[in-house]
Write a structure and sequence with these properties.
8 helices, 12 strands, 292 residues, alpha+beta, 2 domains, six-stranded antiparallel beta barrel
Length: 292
């Protein structure tokens, strides 16, 4: 009951989150795609895990301590915790905006609501910090305590919406998290063959392997294969292009090495399932997922 009510409340914000999100997304997409190394750093490709999710725990924990210190009348400790919490929020926000630059659809609307709540909370915390700082240092202030308490409630609401973006809408979740890694060889069915009955060379070709769709690239006698669904947001890799031995997703331009599926360019932070391909007795091909 409560979950349905909260979902309806979030959906009701679409009248403003949709146009605002589209506007902000255009700028952030333009900005972060001109600094791909920084974007990959903030996405967490080097970590193999979304960096924003790692950073968000710090400000929530630190800013909760502000309330605890206030209740214990530890004005200096509360002010220090608040200052550090604000810096932690800024770091988490930077990583979040990098993820946002490659977020689409309903997830973008939710992420717009999430970021708006977090920015409001951040501004409230800054006000609280200003109220605490007097000419002689940190002082106790009822007004500052009330503002920081309200800010934490807004922060918690923003965290709830952020969780919905991940857990309910699957944003930045590995699209292959529940895919098995079976070792059984299955018949490979390429969607296209050339005049000699071979897989066309040097360009991506879609293929079917049981219930899975693969993207194939033939290089001479070798056939390289990855799962066709991009690990980042589900884009069709067979519609992408080859760049220096890697396949580039047509949706958000993540790149995966065709030989082993390693991600070499974000926004994806996850490797792509790779497959072994061999010729079958009697003609055709068969494939299986490469061992992890």
């Amino acid at each position: 009951m409560l979950a349905h009510a909260l979902t309806r409340l979030m959906d009701a914000q679409g009248a403003w989150t949709r146009p605002l999100g589209d506007l902000v997304h255009r700028f952030l997409h333009w900005f972060f795609h001109r600094i791909p190394a920084i974007r990959d750093l903030l996405n967490g490709r080097w970590l193999g895990h979304p960096l924003h999710a790692v950073l968000t725990d710090a400000p929530i924990g630190i800013l909760f301590l502000v309330i605890v210190f206030d209740l214990l009348h530890l004005a200096d400790a509360a002010a220090w915790a608040l200052g550090i919490g604000i810096l932690a929020m800024l770091g988490a926000a930077l990583a979040g905006f990098a993820d946002y630059s490659d977020t689409d659809g309903r997830a973008r609307e939710r992420a717009t609501l999430h970021s708006t709540l977090m920015i409001v909370a951040l501004l409230a915390y800054i006000v609280s910090l200003v109220l605490r700082l007097g000419p002689s240092g940190a002082t106790e202030s009822a007004g500052a305590f009330i503002v920081s308490l309200i800010a934490f409630l807004i922060l918690a609401a923003g965290a709830f919406v952020g969780g919905d973006v991940v857990y309910a809408l699957g944003n930045m979740v590995d699209r292959h998290a529940f895919r098995g890694a079976g070792t059984k060889w299955l018949v490979l069915e390429p969607a296209e063959l050339d005049a000699t009955g071979q897989i066309p060379e040097g360009r991506p070709i879609k293929a079917k392997l049981g219930i899975n769709q693969l993207v194939l690239v033939r290089q001479g006698a070798q056939i390289l294969a990855l799962h066709d669904v991009c690990a980042h947001a589900g884009g069709p890799l067979n519609e992408g292009k080859l760049v220096d031995g890697a396949i580039e997703c047509p949706w958000h331009y993540s790149r995966y090495r065709m030989t082993n599926g390693d991600v070499i360019q974000g926004p994806s932070v996850y490797h792509q399932p790779a497959y072994e391909v061999r010729a079958r007795d009697g003609g055709g091909w068969e494939a299986r997922r490469q061992p992890a």
